[in-house]
Amino acid sequence: MKATIAIAIVSALLLICAYATKEASKKNKKAKLYVPQIDCDVKAAKILNPEFIAKCPPGCQDVKYRVYGTDIYASFSSICGAAIHSGTIDKSGGKILVQKVAGQSGYRGSFSNGIRSLSLPRWRESFIVSEGKPKKGVQYPSALEYASSKSTSAKGGSLRKEHQTTAVTSFPATQSTATTPKRLITTTTFVSTPPKPTVPSAITTTITTTQTTTVVTAKPQVAMHKVRDIGSSYVHPAYSSVAAGASRQVQAAQGRTQNQAFRGTSSQASNRNVPRLNTGLQRQEPSATFRKAAGNPTNLAMETDLWKPGSSLFDTGLSSKEDVIPKPLEPASQGNPNCKVDLAFLIDGSWSIGKRRFQIQKQFLRDIAEALDIGIAGPIMGIIQYGDDPSTEFNLKTYANTKDVKNAIEKILQKGGLSNVGRALSFVNKNFFEDSNGNRGGAPNIAVVLVDGWPTDKVEEASRLARESGINIFFVTIEGPDENEKQYVVEANFVDKAVCRTNGYYSISVPSWFTLHKVLQPLVKRVCDSDRLACSKTCLNSADIGFVIDGSSSVGTGNFRTVLQFVANISKEFEISETDTRVGAVQYTYEQRLEFGFDRHTTKQDVLTAVKRINYWSGGTSTGAAINYAFDQLFSKSKPNKRKIMILITDGRSYDDVQGPATAAHQNGVIAYSVGIAWAAQDELEAIATDPDKEHSFFVDEFDSLYRFVPKIIQNICTEFNSQPRN
């Protein structure tokens, strides 16, 4: 019996010891780390933890999740986008370790792992990304701390601001707040404090991209305000007006936000005046009251990239106070008469440019419009925005003065998408420069293409067709590809394949969006210099064409009229004016006669009438002498920038030598076409014609078949013109 009791006691002790050991091992066992997940659009500035591990979802390589910098990233970059760019994870997502570091004086953009990061002059906080493995001895948070602020208001007292951080792990909906799941909602609340005889302190708030409607019932009512930081701490002086305009409109928007928040609860709410407590304190203007508290971590979340499709950063629908002050009327400008050009600006609306750079691009266009002096007697302009597809923001006839153009530019919203420049150039060529869209005909057509980085499609074919239509193409490339990025460019040397000439006159490379303002004056000077606009000169408007017509007896009166109809059919295909193509004519037999010179008729109708009135002469056939005469009386008086084209029509062998006069004409820049009928000698036709003979020499058996050569001659003239070196 005693033995049984002893065994029972020992067993109980063993069980107790085993249980104690198990409990001790549980306590000593290391707790498993929970890794919080973040969305693709979460930026480092929104999270207050200096070091943390997080998990990125798949699909964060989209261009709308913008990244700034290389290796070290500005804090308003997408965390997951930076992780893919650095090679820490791929597009399928994964765990990453994020460490906050000091701000940098500059951030270099680059293309890596399918993501193009952007450059930035400076920013106040940075971060680096590495593989998501915890370091020994470091405890990482299982819930991330997001920036938010709270304040309360006293009855009849002053305002006090209390800053707090909130660990966000879930987002339950309530009756008082309507929001989108998985987004942090930041609000400003007021707490009661004893009355203090001080003015309200500075209020600091944080804005996120989620729009929120919060219904508050309190007595008395106090306005809630949101402040956004326009860009980084650095704004170039040339674009300070962008920030200033944004500041005024944000202040107006603050009033409107307050009015919406208290709709139905206060008859005093206004979108222009902030409701105040009856405390005897003077109301502070928003510019003084709502200052950004320097050095506060929550301010790192403030940023400009709050745009979403369908909205505009600065478009609040309200005007600033300055806009409502009456101003004396000024006489409307008719435009700069020394710059009569029709301009199409193709602006980059792709995701890669970002919202801040899109605003800089708009400001640049507004400054361009101011410098050009838009008007019906001077330059007129329209804008096409391209992304995946091009769309016309406004055409050439929509606005006739600088002020209206600038206002229209301010209202343009970013499209997003890729950078399909080739598709945009094709659209401009086929649609934009139509008479119905305001094309004036007598003014040069110019397309200025602004490109962020490089196009995402090929531009060569679309550009060639546009140039052949007489459109002068200029390329302004901002932050173009460096040597390491050129491997990702769809089409090598895309600028040289697009512009009118490859001598650098039609292309401008800008190293940064923040120095874009420096090329404004050079660009304006170039587009206004009509004498240098080479692509305005096409095969149809840049030649002096001299017809040398055989009037010998073998031709006959009836056939001579057929020859004149052939001359008229060719002439009417060209754009004839004093500054475009000019036409002259010589008739010859044994002798020569100048029917009319290049400077005689300056319209197409006048030329056609003059051709019709040429009288048949009759006589022998001295073709060699006729070539010499045509050079002396016509081509020696051609303008330097004109192509000299001679079209000689004959029906027989010449009585004199044609080889010597033809060679001399060729050496003096005359492009000679020979057209023979019936008894014309083939060897003489080839000697007269410019090489290659088969492209410049034609023969038919009958006069009635001459018309067949009209399209072929026009095509050859244009093919030869368009194949000239573009340098």
TrEMBL record:
Residue ranges annotated for the VWFA domain, each copy included: 342-523, 544-713
Skewed-composition ranges (Polar residues): 165-175, 251-273
Domain of life: Eukaryota
GO process annotations (BP): extracellular matrix organization; nervous system development; positive regulation of cell-substrate adhesion
Signal peptide: 1-20
Region of interest (Disordered), residue spans: 151-175, 251-296
Domain LCCL, chain residue ranges per copy: 34-127
Record's subcellular location: Secreted, Extracellular space, Extracellular matrix
InterPro entries: ECM_Assembly_Org, LCCL, LCCL_sf, VWF_A, vWFA_dom_sf
GO cellular component: interstitial matrix
Coiled-coil ranges per UniProt: none
Task performed by this protein: Promotes matrix assembly and cell adhesiveness. Plays a role in spinal cord formation by regulating the proliferation and differentiation of neural stem cells.
Assembly and binders: Binds dermatan sulfate and chondroitin sulfate.
Protein name: Vitrin
Record lineage: Eukaryota, Metazoa, Chordata, Craniata, Vertebrata
